[in-house]
Amino acid sequence: MKLFRPVGVKELLKIIDLNLKRFPSRLPQQPIFYLVLNMDYAEEIASKWNIKDPVSDDAGYILEFKVQDAYITKYKIERAGNKNYKELWVPAEEL
Fold it and tell me: How far apart are CA 73 and CA 70, in angstroms?
C-alpha cells in the first residue's frame, strides 16, 4: 500500500539523521503516528497546515513510501473529517 506522511523541517531532518530508514520516536503527547492514504490530503496538510505551524518550521514536505499490505492491514482506516481525509493511526509504541 502506498502511504504518505506530511512532515515539517524538524521531523524531516530527524528522518534524514536516521538514514531515511525509520521515523523518529513520538513525544509523550503524541500517542498516535498517522499515515495519510491519499496525496491530495497529504498536500493539503503540507501546504495549508504545516506552513502555519512554527513546530514544523513553517514548511511542509510529503514523504511517500510503500508498506506491505500484510502488515498495514492490521490498522483500521480512520476518517479525520471529510470523506477524503483518510488516515491510518499507528500507536506510537508500535512505530
Answer: 6
Closest residue by Cα to residue 40 from 81, 89, 95, 91 = 81
Task: Let me know if residue 25 belongs to a domain.
Answer: no
pLDDT given at position 57: 67
Q: Give per-residue pLDDT as tens, 16-65.
A: 999 998 888 888 888 999 999 999 999 988 888 766 666 656 678 999 98
As for how many domains the chain has, the answer is 1
Tell me if 76 sits within 8 A of 86, measured CB to CB: no
Containing structural domain, residue 65: 2-20+30-94
Sign of the Cα pseudo-torsion (76, 38, 61, 68, in order): positive
Could you identify the residue written with the cell 476518517?
79
pLDDT tens, residue by residue, 7-17: 988 889 999 99
Name the residue type at position 24. Answer: P
